[in-house]
Write a structure and sequence with these properties.
Elements: H1 11-27, H2 33-40, H3 45-57, H4 76-82, H5 87-91, E1 94-103, E2 108-109, E3 116-120, E4 135-141, E5 155-160, E6 169-174, E7 177-186, E8 190-194, E9 203-204, E10 211-220
Parallel strand pairs: 1-4
Antiparallel strand pairs: 1-3, 2-7, 4-5, 5-10, 6-7, 6-10, 7-8, 8-9
Amino acid sequence: MLANSLPKLTAIQEKALKFIHRTTVKRGTPPTLRELCEYMGYKAIGSAQDVVSALRKKQYLIKPKQQSARSLSLTNIANNLFHKPSLSELGNLYTVPCLGTVPAGNPIEAVEERIGNLTISPELMKRHHRKPKNLFALKAQGWSMRDAAISDGDWLIVKQTKEAEKGQIVVARLKDEATVKRLMYDKRRGYFLKPENPDFQNIYGDENPFEVIGEVVALQRMIV
């Protein structure tokens, strides 16, 4: 059972919350509302919406500024209910430098000045990225990556690299500007940067040359 430091959950709400958490950990992105509906065995999606609304009211789920297909994100407090770090894990916390903001929207001037540090838990990272070397943090600005569960104001943990595989979310530089997008490849036009929001356009390298400067390896949401 979950801890009772927050408003008490019904059995149905707890079942839904555990599914959202388990799916997010397994895939790296939250489930869709329709997936939650299917898991809960509901015939009408409105029933799943009612559960989500209750979880948000009880502060277990974040209330997004804009709705998206994958807006079922747990609050930091709710995440802590599933994992309570041991003393040894607390001793392994490390910090990465914060280098300002990177737009999850239209490119703006890249900010490279160090503005502080962000404390990161190893549990936030994939196993092969659990080393602080060559990591830095950037704050996402905008909503072009909302369907990848990246919201305005989220901190992105970025591994410094000039190479990334197709399909990875990257930080890319276009002249003196930077943006965060998904790196994709088109047989005719070559590599391009794809937003995860239909309101934004692809950025093709044959029109706007860009270079990858980092791969997003983790996200730390600051909303509680």
